[in-house]
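Running this now, will post back.
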Amino acid sequence: MNALFIGIKGSVLAVGRATGDTMWSTHLKGSSFVTVAVEDGSVYAGTHGHLFCLDPSTGYVRWTNELKGFGYGLISFGGDSSALFGEYKRRQHASHSSGGA
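Update: finished.
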């Protein structure tokens, strides 16, 4: 799937990179800011203090976690597929491949 995933007003949208067409839209909760991360074949979204896991092809909500006891603040994401960590791993591999030169 060649999609860009966007969080906006309590929803996640999949938008075609080549056309800009909306492929699917899933309303999650409320109308607040939505943070989005894509990793390991899933789209993760956080809004209104809840964490959601979505199917990237359909927008179907696979599971949700209410994150009880943490309030309704913004959710930030990190992981192996983050851009900074990915670049770090690439450079580390290149350094090892060239004998550390």
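The mean pLDDT is 85. More later if anyone needs it.
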